[in-house]
Amino acid sequence: MKKIAVVILNWNGERFLKDFLHLLVEYTPSWAEIVLADNASTDGSVAFIREYFPQIRIILNEKNYGFAQGYNIALQQIDTEYYCLLNSDIEVRKGWLEPIVDFLDKQTDVAVCQPKLLSFSDKTMFEYAGASGGFIDKYGYPFCRGRIFNSLEEDNGQYDDAIDIFWATGACMFVRASIYHELGGLDDDFFAHMEEIDFCWRVKNAGYRVMCCPDSVIYHVGGGTLPKKSSRKTFLNFRNNIILLYKNLPKRRVPWVFFIRFILDNIAAIRFLFDSGFEDFAAVYKAHFSFYASLRKNIRKRSWIKHKHVAHIYNRSIVFDYYLRKKHRFSDLKSSRFSK
Predict the structure, then answer these.
(1) Residue 168: is its pLDDT beyond 80?
(2) Helical ranges in 76-210 per DSSP H
(3) What is the arithmetic mean of pLDDT over 209-227?
(4) Which of 108, 217, 229, 281 could cross-link 273 (Cys pair, CB 3.0–4.6 Å)?
(5) Looking at residue 275, what is its pLDDT?
(6) What pTM value is reported for the model?
């Protein structure tokens, strides 16, 4: 049995496989397995792997199940100690895998870990999807060490310490296989976006830790499946964020957080109307309607979680601090403002 499986969930990503897979194969040690889980691609992805990388195991999903369910189906078929969920649009370099596996071997209470993500297009800058570890504020808005909203920082080694974080990026998420299955994996209903934050919150509710190990560095293209400006992406981000809040917040916090979020989401919708157009504006309200339409299911999911006070939530509004107090860098945020 291999120690770790590096699993790429692919949907019509042939262009990225051609660009980056040869480096992944070159820099992945023999004690690791590379697996391509394909979500019924209609391009030449599978044929390309079979012709040029026959050593890579292929798992064929029957249809495009999305990120969450696609991984859940694939990982049920893989028997290793650790999983690495890796996007196809990532460039790795020599020694990318060993530091995190060694870290997990030593830190046995850590369930999930991520490397440092830098931008493929500008390797001096942090990358949007994960930077050097993810956090959320008390109203559920995510941000990273190295990226708050659309403000990306230059990497000058300022976030090179291994620390506890709130969420690890799904672009390159390492997880103990036993805990992944113990917690039921990713939430199938998310389809894509925010599922890693929901999973990491459940990890924390279960008493495990989530960390960033910046000794490992990768480079991410980003926006490979949906374009950065997409009403579908807006819908998924808002809907899934509301769902993860409802599922994971302690009961006493749900009413107040939802009241504030309703106000903030209305402000966001109006801003979309002027900045992006009607489709993004409508996507915010479609997200809310979708949440309430599935409320019974989410009540049931909530009942499965043992809620507790968890660390590393920013106990202020990052929206307020970013837009009104002009705190655009993670280092501008006081450490005392994060829950312990």
Answers:
(1) yes
(2) 98-106, 177-182, 195-205
(3) 85
(4) 281
(5) 87
(6) 0.95
